[in-house]
Amino acid sequence: MPLQPAELQDLQISIGDRIYIQVANWHLYLRDAALAEPLAIECNANLDLGANVAARKALENVQVSLGGGNARLPLARLIPSGQIFDLEDILGPYCR
Fold it and tell me: What interhelical angle do 5-18 and 36-45 show, nearest 10?
């Protein structure tokens, strides 16, 4: 069952505040990269499969444009592995 709009907004905020892209030694939080909303929407689509599956599927499905659109990579390739576990922790309470 999909989240209500207020719950989706809360999920987006939680993701934006805790999950980041790592490039070299720089951390760019998803709220600043405008990726928290698409990731929250993708996670919401798979919450019924559990936090683990929802997190991994969403990270693969959200594509990040690099170099002004010259390349696209799945978000999963841009975040550290520990962030996947953080995302699963965020999603846990939303899974029904």
Answer: 120
